[in-house]
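Lab notebook, bench 4. Still working through the backlog of constructs that have no structural model yet. Next entry is a single chain of 299 residues. Request: give me the structure tokens for it.
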Amino acid sequence: MSNDLPKVAWIGLGIMGSPMSENLIKAGYDVTGYTLEQDKVDRLAAVGGTGASSIAEAVRDADVIITMVPASPQVEAIAYGPEGILENARRGALLVDMSSITPQTSVDLAERARDKGIRVLDAPVSGGEAGAVEAVLSIMVGGEQADFDAARPVLDALGRTIVLCGPHGCGQTVKAANQLIVAVNIQACAEAVVFLEKSGVDLAAALDVLNGGLAGSTVLTRKKANFLNRAFAPGFRIDLHHKDMGIVTDAARNVGAALPVGAVVAQLVASLRAQGDGGLDHSALLRSVERLSGRPVGA
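Model written out:
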């Protein structure tokens, strides 16, 4: 392990955080991790990381602190307060928040961190669990150019498409747009699947040929097996996409942008969650179309 690489603290070892932090270890980084579930801290330690028993312990000696938690309230909970990141990280540390949260939360975090001498980037990702495991994530970043340049080698170990989109909050705004496009795309695919099946078409053959033309997409490539097999183990949970659709509809309202189709899909995501499917993968939007089309769900 090279001693000239920055020391990394990783807060949040979930579906995304665990494989991402492990990719940093593979790249030679010294990673100290903390998360609420001890078994996930143990998993990090088993592959060469160091487990911490608190946020304060994890961040104390870190040059770079990376956070990957579900939503704005969790970011605020880990960042603020006497046990939080800002009170316990050293001046000059770089905090890279890779969670998907509201743009305003990112702006507020950067302002409060500045008072502590801590630099901040918002750096949400797209690519799902598979993208995290394969280190091919798309990473959309908001913040200062110099901080982006400093973080770039670390981000290069996690993703393939890494772009500074503008000042603080801009990474989150682009992520919100990403989630809008993904949800509408999944919904269109789901409607096509039910239409094709009710028409008696060979679904696997149809999806193959569709994916080779203008209707093809990363969503269809990544989610085709989910649709074919009705397999909805979460790579990205409906609960989280519901949160993200709230972010994008609210942010769009604030800037005066109309999202007519996005608003409909947001309601379909909300209804799926209300029907108890919030823990399933977002490709389970197929279940909503099945219900609306009078098909037995999952048949």
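Notes after review: The chain has a mean pLDDT of 96. The radius of gyration is 20 Å. Flag for follow-up if needed.
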